[in-house]
Predict the structure.
Amino acid sequence: MTWLDRIPVWILVAVALTLGLAPFVPEPHVWEKLKMLAAGTLSRPIDIFDLLYHGAPWLLLALKLARLTQRRG
């Protein structure tokens, strides 16, 4: 996980806010796909890829923040 330690937090925040929330209108893809997942309608391969693509920045940011918390505590 040293590669994650080398990435500044501000870059992960910027990527999560831009790519993670794109497109902004009518609603972010990641939110739409999470609703589909909760409803049980996330079945098409393109939708699964979309969830992974737009969710990855949020996952990386969460991992980075967890690592920072762990290292300080």
Summary: The longest helix spans residues 45-72. Helices lie at 2-5, 9-18, 29-39, 45-72. DSSP finds four helices and no strands in the chain.
